[in-house]
Design a protein that fits this description.
By secondary structure, the protein is an alpha+beta fold. It contains ten helices and eleven strands. Helices cover 31% and strands 15% of the residues. Strands 1-3-4-5-7-6-2 form a seven-stranded antiparallel sheet, covered by helices on one side. The chain is globular, with a radius of gyration of 21 Å.
Amino acid sequence: MMITCFGKSRISGKLRKRDSSSTSSPPRNWTSKDDNTEEEGSKIIFFGGKNHSFDLDDLLSSSAQVLGKGAFGTTYKVTMEDMSTVVVKRLKEVVAGRREFEQQMEIIGMIRHENVAELKAYYYSKDDKLAVYSYYTQGSLSQMLHGNIGMYDRVPLSWDARLRIATGAARGLAKIHEGNNGRLIHGNIKSSNIFLDSQGYGCIGDIGLTTIMRSLPRRTCLTSGYHAPEITDTRRSTQSSDVYSFGVVLLELLTGKSPASPAVTDAEHGGENMDLASWIRNVVAKDWTGEVFDIEMLSESGVEDEMVEMLQIGLACVGVKQQERPRIAQVVKLIQDIRSTE
């Protein structure tokens, strides 16, 4: 992990322009010490009507740990002087103007649900666009599934844990789809955007950014493993494509394989690489269903029927045709019905 600092100089609640002298290395500071320009009207906007313990000045003067870099920007874990922690995403490739950006942030900020990562605040200026989210100490599903592979201190995810994650994440996505009068789209569902709360339930993060960002390159859509087939052409997300992506996450939970680099081949087709959903369909068609499940769960007894039920739900979600896929509200019910009690 990389540690950086957001700059220790006080800037009167205004974010100054970034130092653009170096683009190859991570930013050492949020601000450029040589630029004292303040953009009029730019301020951090908070949600929830709460008395927040930090302001923009606090964010900029706090040390930060780089959690990752993605198509939408760099994500930081920021720890303030009072030891409170938030996640700050510094957005890049934003194509929306101020008004559209603020409207989308307002829609996202209205969502309050235990399985949705809370958008605490946002900031918009000519040179910087920031989104501030809740921080989850348990980390992401991607880290849980794929981190420390082969290490002695790795803690495998049990089937109970995976079922709990799927249940929470499905509920979170259903809540998101209710937003904006039932028209809100996530657009980037993947295991690295699903976090674990203190009870081990999945929570959806990175909500609704696709509508204000530049479209992902076609190659990215083709190789990510999470995007529905229609996205590679239109690059326009829908609630149906969200369901497809969520179905891939369910398959990822069951197999332990990363869709971004699925180590699966089809011997009957010259050993060519297949995406995760296609590989599973191929294995199931040969009545080898048990072969798809993560080896880390094979020692558990009495859960295979539940795993098969989840597999059927995941395969329904990744239907090639949009009309074949269930709505997320149906998916929530199907997952909850796997067990009568949690």
